[in-house]
Amino acid sequence: MKNKDIEQLINKYLEGETSPAEEQKLALELQRPDIPEEWQAIRLMLGELTLGEAEYDAILKKNTPLHHGKGWGWVCSVSSLAAVLLVGLFLYQHKPNGNVNEVPHYYTFNLSAGCTLKNVYQRRQHQVKTLSYTRFKTMLYENH
Amino acid sequence: MIYQLNISPFAAYYRCMTRSEFEHIAATLRQKVLKVGLQFFGSQEDAEDAAQETMEQMWRYCEQIDAGRNIEVLAIRVAKNCCVSMYRRQRTSLPRPLPRRGEQPQRGSLSLGEGWGEASSPQDILEAKDMERMLQEALDLLKPRERQLFEMRQLEGLSVDEISSETGIPKLSITAMVSAARKKVFIELKRRMKQ
User: Fold this and answer.
1) Residue range of the domain that includes A128
2) Maximum distance among all alpha carbons in chain A?
3) Residues B166 and B88 in one domain
4) CB contact under 8 A, A45 and B135
5) How many domains does chain A have?
6) Alpha helices of B42-70 — where are they, by DSSP H?
7) How far apart are the first and last CA of chain B?
8) Distance CA B32, CA B71 (A)
9) What is the CATH number for B40?
10) Are residues B162 and B112 in the same domain?
Protein backbone atom coordinates (compact mmCIF):
# COMPACT_ATOMS: atom_id res chain seq x y z
CA MET A 1 0.00 0.00 0.00
CA LYS A 2 1.31 3.43 -0.93
CA ASN A 3 1.73 6.21 1.63
CA LYS A 4 -1.10 8.13 0.00
CA ASP A 5 -3.46 5.19 0.48
CA ILE A 6 -2.36 4.79 4.08
CA GLU A 7 -3.01 8.48 4.69
CA GLN A 8 -6.51 8.14 3.27
CA LEU A 9 -7.18 5.17 5.52
CA ILE A 10 -5.87 7.12 8.53
CA ASN A 11 -8.26 9.97 7.74
CA LYS A 12 -11.10 7.50 7.44
CA TYR A 13 -10.06 6.01 10.80
CA LEU A 14 -10.07 9.42 12.46
CA GLU A 15 -13.55 10.06 11.06
CA GLY A 16 -14.69 6.85 12.75
CA GLU A 17 -15.67 5.35 9.41
CA THR A 18 -13.29 2.41 9.12
CA SER A 19 -14.48 -1.14 9.58
CA PRO A 20 -12.63 -3.51 11.97
CA ALA A 21 -11.12 -5.20 8.87
CA GLU A 22 -9.79 -1.89 7.57
CA GLU A 23 -8.34 -1.11 10.98
CA GLN A 24 -6.53 -4.45 10.97
CA LYS A 25 -5.15 -3.67 7.54
CA LEU A 26 -4.01 -0.25 8.74
CA ALA A 27 -2.37 -1.77 11.82
CA LEU A 28 -0.35 -4.09 9.59
CA GLU A 29 0.69 -1.27 7.26
CA LEU A 30 1.86 0.85 10.18
CA GLN A 31 4.35 -1.81 11.26
CA ARG A 32 6.87 -0.47 8.75
CA PRO A 33 9.97 0.91 10.42
CA ASP A 34 10.09 4.10 8.34
CA ILE A 35 6.65 5.57 9.03
CA PRO A 36 6.24 9.30 9.84
CA GLU A 37 6.18 10.20 13.54
CA GLU A 38 2.52 11.18 13.63
CA TRP A 39 1.52 7.82 12.21
CA GLN A 40 3.09 6.24 15.27
CA ALA A 41 0.30 7.84 17.28
CA ILE A 42 -2.26 6.05 15.10
CA ARG A 43 -0.37 2.79 15.52
CA LEU A 44 -0.55 3.24 19.28
CA MET A 45 -4.26 4.09 19.16
CA LEU A 46 -5.12 1.05 17.06
CA GLY A 47 -3.74 -1.09 19.86
CA GLU A 48 -1.83 -4.33 19.86
CA LEU A 49 -4.96 -6.47 19.88
CA THR A 50 -5.94 -5.12 16.47
CA LEU A 51 -2.46 -5.79 15.17
CA GLY A 52 -2.38 -9.24 16.74
CA GLU A 53 -5.70 -10.15 15.18
CA ALA A 54 -4.50 -8.94 11.78
CA GLU A 55 -1.31 -10.98 12.08
CA TYR A 56 -3.26 -14.03 13.24
CA ASP A 57 -5.47 -13.87 10.16
CA ALA A 58 -2.50 -13.23 7.86
CA ILE A 59 -0.52 -16.21 9.22
CA LEU A 60 -3.57 -18.46 9.13
CA LYS A 61 -4.27 -17.48 5.53
CA LYS A 62 -0.67 -18.20 4.61
CA ASN A 63 -0.48 -21.67 6.23
CA THR A 64 -3.92 -23.12 6.82
CA PRO A 65 -3.61 -24.64 9.42
CA LEU A 66 0.03 -24.44 10.41
CA HIS A 67 0.68 -28.13 10.87
CA HIS A 68 -1.26 -29.23 7.80
CA GLY A 69 -0.51 -28.57 4.18
CA LYS A 70 -2.97 -27.50 1.54
CA GLY A 71 -3.60 -31.15 0.57
CA TRP A 72 -4.86 -32.08 4.03
CA GLY A 73 -8.52 -31.80 2.97
CA TRP A 74 -7.90 -34.18 0.07
CA VAL A 75 -6.13 -36.67 2.31
CA CYS A 76 -9.10 -36.63 4.72
CA SER A 77 -11.62 -37.09 1.90
CA VAL A 78 -9.73 -39.97 0.24
CA SER A 79 -9.17 -41.71 3.60
CA SER A 80 -12.87 -41.47 4.48
CA LEU A 81 -13.88 -42.89 1.09
CA ALA A 82 -11.39 -45.76 1.41
CA ALA A 83 -12.70 -46.59 4.89
CA VAL A 84 -16.30 -46.70 3.65
CA LEU A 85 -15.32 -48.96 0.71
CA LEU A 86 -13.41 -51.35 3.00
CA VAL A 87 -16.33 -51.67 5.39
CA GLY A 88 -18.65 -52.33 2.43
CA LEU A 89 -16.32 -54.99 1.03
CA PHE A 90 -16.06 -56.70 4.42
CA LEU A 91 -19.84 -56.80 4.86
CA TYR A 92 -20.31 -58.13 1.31
CA GLN A 93 -17.84 -60.97 1.82
CA HIS A 94 -19.37 -62.01 5.13
CA LYS A 95 -22.94 -62.02 3.87
CA PRO A 96 -24.80 -65.04 5.42
CA ASN A 97 -25.92 -67.78 2.98
CA GLY A 98 -29.45 -69.22 2.83
CA ASN A 99 -32.32 -68.32 5.13
CA VAL A 100 -31.23 -65.77 7.70
CA ASN A 101 -33.82 -67.08 10.14
CA GLU A 102 -32.26 -70.54 10.11
CA VAL A 103 -30.63 -71.49 13.41
CA PRO A 104 -26.85 -72.01 12.99
CA HIS A 105 -25.71 -75.67 13.30
CA TYR A 106 -23.52 -75.04 16.34
CA TYR A 107 -26.64 -74.17 18.36
CA THR A 108 -28.69 -77.23 17.38
CA PHE A 109 -26.85 -79.71 19.65
CA ASN A 110 -27.60 -77.80 22.84
CA LEU A 111 -31.19 -77.19 21.82
CA SER A 112 -31.93 -80.79 20.91
CA ALA A 113 -29.86 -82.46 23.60
CA GLY A 114 -31.07 -80.27 26.43
CA CYS A 115 -28.82 -79.27 29.25
CA THR A 116 -29.46 -81.77 32.06
CA LEU A 117 -26.94 -84.40 33.13
CA LYS A 118 -29.27 -87.16 32.02
CA ASN A 119 -29.60 -85.73 28.52
CA VAL A 120 -25.82 -85.55 28.17
CA TYR A 121 -25.53 -89.16 29.44
CA GLN A 122 -28.08 -90.45 26.95
CA ARG A 123 -26.18 -88.77 24.10
CA ARG A 124 -22.83 -90.20 25.29
CA GLN A 125 -24.44 -93.67 25.63
CA HIS A 126 -25.05 -93.71 21.90
CA GLN A 127 -21.33 -93.03 21.35
CA VAL A 128 -19.88 -95.38 24.08
CA LYS A 129 -22.18 -98.37 24.59
CA THR A 130 -20.52 -99.69 27.80
CA LEU A 131 -20.82 -96.51 29.85
CA SER A 132 -23.31 -96.80 32.76
CA TYR A 133 -25.15 -93.82 34.19
CA THR A 134 -23.57 -94.38 37.65
CA ARG A 135 -20.10 -94.57 36.12
CA PHE A 136 -20.78 -91.45 34.16
CA LYS A 137 -21.80 -89.54 37.33
CA THR A 138 -18.70 -90.86 39.17
CA MET A 139 -16.47 -89.62 36.35
CA LEU A 140 -17.95 -86.15 36.67
CA TYR A 141 -17.56 -86.03 40.45
CA GLU A 142 -13.95 -87.21 40.18
CA ASN A 143 -13.25 -84.36 37.82
CA HIS A 144 -14.47 -81.83 40.36
CA MET B 1 7.35 -7.01 19.56
CA ILE B 2 5.48 -5.89 22.63
CA TYR B 3 1.77 -6.49 22.97
CA GLN B 4 -0.07 -4.10 25.18
CA LEU B 5 -3.72 -3.63 25.88
CA ASN B 6 -4.90 -0.68 27.87
CA ILE B 7 -7.82 -1.51 30.09
CA SER B 8 -7.62 0.48 33.28
CA PRO B 9 -8.42 3.97 31.90
CA PHE B 10 -12.00 2.77 31.65
CA ALA B 11 -12.11 0.88 34.89
CA ALA B 12 -13.40 3.86 36.85
CA TYR B 13 -16.56 4.04 34.73
CA TYR B 14 -18.00 0.58 35.10
CA ARG B 15 -18.34 -2.32 37.53
CA CYS B 16 -15.33 -4.53 37.08
CA MET B 17 -15.53 -8.28 36.95
CA THR B 18 -14.66 -10.18 40.13
CA ARG B 19 -12.34 -13.18 40.29
CA SER B 20 -15.24 -15.35 41.35
CA GLU B 21 -17.30 -14.22 38.33
CA PHE B 22 -14.37 -15.04 36.11
CA GLU B 23 -13.95 -18.48 37.65
CA HIS B 24 -17.62 -19.13 36.98
CA ILE B 25 -17.17 -18.70 33.21
CA ALA B 26 -13.54 -19.85 32.95
CA ALA B 27 -14.29 -23.40 31.73
CA THR B 28 -16.56 -22.20 28.90
CA LEU B 29 -14.11 -19.46 28.03
CA ARG B 30 -11.24 -21.93 27.86
CA GLN B 31 -13.10 -24.11 25.36
CA LYS B 32 -13.58 -21.11 23.10
CA VAL B 33 -9.95 -19.96 23.24
CA LEU B 34 -8.82 -23.55 22.71
CA LYS B 35 -10.68 -23.57 19.40
CA VAL B 36 -8.80 -20.42 18.36
CA GLY B 37 -5.49 -22.18 19.06
CA LEU B 38 -6.57 -25.38 17.30
CA GLN B 39 -7.62 -23.47 14.23
CA PHE B 40 -4.26 -21.70 14.16
CA PHE B 41 -1.80 -24.46 15.06
CA GLY B 42 -3.72 -27.58 14.05
CA SER B 43 -2.09 -29.25 17.04
CA GLN B 44 -3.76 -30.04 20.35
CA GLU B 45 -0.56 -29.52 22.33
CA ASP B 46 0.14 -26.03 20.97
CA ALA B 47 -3.52 -25.11 21.25
CA GLU B 48 -3.49 -26.15 24.92
CA ASP B 49 -0.41 -23.97 25.54
CA ALA B 50 -2.02 -20.99 23.83
CA ALA B 51 -5.24 -21.50 25.79
CA GLN B 52 -3.28 -21.70 29.03
CA GLU B 53 -1.43 -18.48 28.24
CA THR B 54 -4.67 -16.72 27.33
CA MET B 55 -6.42 -17.83 30.50
CA GLU B 56 -3.45 -16.65 32.58
CA GLN B 57 -3.64 -13.23 30.97
CA MET B 58 -7.40 -13.03 31.42
CA TRP B 59 -7.09 -14.13 35.05
CA ARG B 60 -4.49 -11.45 35.77
CA TYR B 61 -6.60 -8.68 34.29
CA CYS B 62 -10.16 -9.87 34.87
CA GLU B 63 -10.60 -7.39 37.70
CA GLN B 64 -10.09 -4.54 35.24
CA ILE B 65 -12.64 -5.77 32.74
CA ASP B 66 -16.18 -4.43 32.60
CA ALA B 67 -18.46 -7.13 33.96
CA GLY B 68 -21.21 -5.99 31.59
CA ARG B 69 -19.10 -6.49 28.48
CA ASN B 70 -18.83 -9.55 26.28
CA ILE B 71 -15.70 -11.08 27.76
CA GLU B 72 -15.66 -13.85 25.15
CA VAL B 73 -14.87 -11.40 22.37
CA LEU B 74 -11.97 -9.99 24.36
CA ALA B 75 -10.72 -13.47 25.30
CA ILE B 76 -10.72 -14.54 21.65
CA ARG B 77 -8.71 -11.47 20.64
CA VAL B 78 -6.24 -12.09 23.47
CA ALA B 79 -6.03 -15.75 22.36
CA LYS B 80 -5.17 -14.68 18.83
CA ASN B 81 -2.40 -12.47 20.19
CA CYS B 82 -1.08 -15.34 22.28
CA CYS B 83 -1.07 -17.60 19.21
CA VAL B 84 0.91 -15.04 17.20
CA SER B 85 3.29 -14.53 20.11
CA MET B 86 3.80 -18.32 20.46
CA TYR B 87 4.26 -18.68 16.73
CA ARG B 88 7.06 -16.13 16.79
CA ARG B 89 8.72 -17.81 19.76
CA GLN B 90 8.60 -21.16 17.98
CA ARG B 91 10.17 -19.66 14.88
CA THR B 92 12.97 -17.97 16.80
CA SER B 93 13.25 -20.98 19.17
CA LEU B 94 13.76 -18.75 22.15
CA PRO B 95 12.56 -20.03 25.51
CA ARG B 96 10.03 -18.19 27.58
CA PRO B 97 11.79 -16.62 30.56
CA LEU B 98 10.45 -17.40 34.01
CA PRO B 99 8.64 -14.54 35.75
CA ARG B 100 10.68 -12.80 38.39
CA ARG B 101 9.71 -13.47 41.98
CA GLY B 102 7.13 -11.05 43.32
CA GLU B 103 6.66 -9.49 39.89
CA GLN B 104 3.22 -7.96 39.53
CA PRO B 105 1.65 -6.80 36.30
CA GLN B 106 1.50 -3.06 35.99
CA ARG B 107 -2.07 -1.92 36.41
CA GLY B 108 -3.45 -0.67 33.18
CA SER B 109 -1.47 -2.70 30.75
CA LEU B 110 -1.92 -6.17 29.44
CA SER B 111 1.49 -7.04 28.12
CA LEU B 112 1.23 -10.21 26.16
CA GLY B 113 4.71 -10.39 24.76
CA GLU B 114 6.89 -8.32 27.00
CA GLY B 115 10.15 -10.06 27.75
CA TRP B 116 9.01 -13.23 26.04
CA GLY B 117 12.08 -13.88 24.00
CA GLU B 118 11.02 -11.66 21.17
CA ALA B 119 12.92 -8.61 20.06
CA SER B 120 12.24 -6.68 23.28
CA SER B 121 15.36 -4.97 24.49
CA PRO B 122 15.22 -2.97 27.75
CA GLN B 123 15.17 0.15 25.58
CA ASP B 124 12.16 -1.16 23.63
CA ILE B 125 10.34 -1.97 26.85
CA LEU B 126 11.00 1.48 28.30
CA GLU B 127 9.81 3.14 25.11
CA ALA B 128 6.69 0.99 25.01
CA LYS B 129 5.87 1.84 28.62
CA ASP B 130 6.38 5.51 27.88
CA MET B 131 4.03 5.30 24.90
CA GLU B 132 1.47 3.46 26.97
CA ARG B 133 1.61 6.16 29.64
CA MET B 134 1.09 8.82 26.99
CA LEU B 135 -1.91 6.98 25.59
CA GLN B 136 -3.48 6.67 29.03
CA GLU B 137 -3.00 10.36 29.71
CA ALA B 138 -4.56 11.18 26.35
CA LEU B 139 -7.51 8.91 27.12
CA ASP B 140 -8.02 10.75 30.39
CA LEU B 141 -9.21 13.70 28.33
CA LEU B 142 -12.16 11.78 26.92
CA LYS B 143 -15.71 11.93 28.23
CA PRO B 144 -17.01 8.67 29.76
CA ARG B 145 -19.23 7.85 26.79
CA GLU B 146 -16.40 8.59 24.35
CA ARG B 147 -14.12 6.32 26.34
CA GLN B 148 -16.66 3.54 26.34
CA LEU B 149 -17.09 3.65 22.58
CA PHE B 150 -13.36 3.98 22.00
CA GLU B 151 -12.89 0.87 24.12
CA MET B 152 -15.55 -1.10 22.32
CA ARG B 153 -13.76 -0.44 19.05
CA GLN B 154 -10.21 -0.84 20.35
CA LEU B 155 -10.50 -3.72 22.80
CA GLU B 156 -13.41 -5.71 21.47
CA GLY B 157 -13.01 -4.80 17.81
CA LEU B 158 -16.76 -4.33 17.45
CA SER B 159 -18.25 -2.71 14.35
CA VAL B 160 -20.52 0.32 14.52
CA ASP B 161 -23.52 -1.93 13.82
CA GLU B 162 -22.61 -4.24 16.70
CA ILE B 163 -22.07 -1.33 19.10
CA SER B 164 -25.38 0.16 18.04
CA SER B 165 -27.30 -3.04 18.68
CA GLU B 166 -25.57 -3.47 22.02
CA THR B 167 -25.90 0.08 23.34
CA GLY B 168 -28.98 1.31 21.49
CA ILE B 169 -27.10 4.42 20.34
CA PRO B 170 -27.81 5.40 16.71
CA LYS B 171 -25.03 4.52 14.28
CA LEU B 172 -24.43 8.10 13.20
CA SER B 173 -23.99 9.19 16.81
CA ILE B 174 -21.54 6.36 17.42
CA THR B 175 -19.48 7.32 14.38
CA ALA B 176 -19.44 10.96 15.50
CA MET B 177 -18.45 10.14 19.09
CA VAL B 178 -15.77 7.64 18.05
CA SER B 179 -14.40 10.20 15.61
CA ALA B 180 -14.31 12.92 18.26
CA ALA B 181 -12.57 10.57 20.69
CA ARG B 182 -9.98 9.47 18.16
CA LYS B 183 -9.20 13.02 17.06
CA LYS B 184 -8.76 14.19 20.67
CA VAL B 185 -6.43 11.30 21.46
CA PHE B 186 -4.50 11.74 18.21
CA ILE B 187 -3.92 15.47 18.78
CA GLU B 188 -2.85 14.88 22.36
CA LEU B 189 -0.48 12.07 21.41
CA LYS B 190 1.10 14.16 18.66
CA ARG B 191 1.59 17.04 21.10
CA ARG B 192 3.21 14.78 23.67
CA MET B 193 5.43 13.06 21.13
CA LYS B 194 6.82 16.39 20.01
CA GLN B 195 7.78 17.39 23.56
Assistant:
1) 105-143
2) 114
3) no
4) yes
5) 2
6) 44-61
7) 25
8) 11
9) 1.10.1740
10) no
Residue A41 sits at the chain B interface (C-beta within 8 Å): yes
Domain co-membership, B179 together with B87: no
Task: Report how many domains make up chain B.
Answer: 2
Q: Is residue A19 part of a domain?
A: yes
**Contact with chain B for residue A36, Cβ under 8 A:** no
My answer on whether B147 and B93 are in the same domain is no
More confident position, A98 or B92:
B92
Q: Which residues of A touch B134 (CB under 8 A)?
A: 44
Do residues B163 and B153 lie in contact, with contact meaning Cβ atoms separated by under 8 Å? yes
Put simply, the answer to whether A52 touches B77 (Cβ < 8 Å) is yes
Q: Are residues B176 and B81 part of one domain?
A: no
Residue that is last in its domain, among B85, B118, B151: B118
pLDDT tens column, B45-96:
999 999 999 999 899 888 888 777 778 888 999 999 999 999 988 887 655 5
B168, with CB counted inside 10 A (0-12, 13-18, 19+), is exposed
CATH number at residue B188: 1.10.10.10
What is the dihedral sign for C-alpha B74, B75, B80, B81?
A: positive
What is the three-class DSSP state of B190? helix
- Tens of pLDDT, residues A116-136: 666 766 776 666 555 666 666
Give the model confidence (pLDDT) of B152-195 as tens digits.
888 888 899 999 998 999 999 999 999 999 999 999 999 988 87
Contact of A16 with chain B, judged by CB distance below 8 Å, is answered with yes
Distance CA B139, CA A122 (A): 101
Residue A49 forms contact with B (CB below 8 Å):
yes
Q: Residue B104 is part of which domain span?
A: 4-118
ipTM: 0.73
Give the chain B residue nearest A31 (alpha carbons).
B1
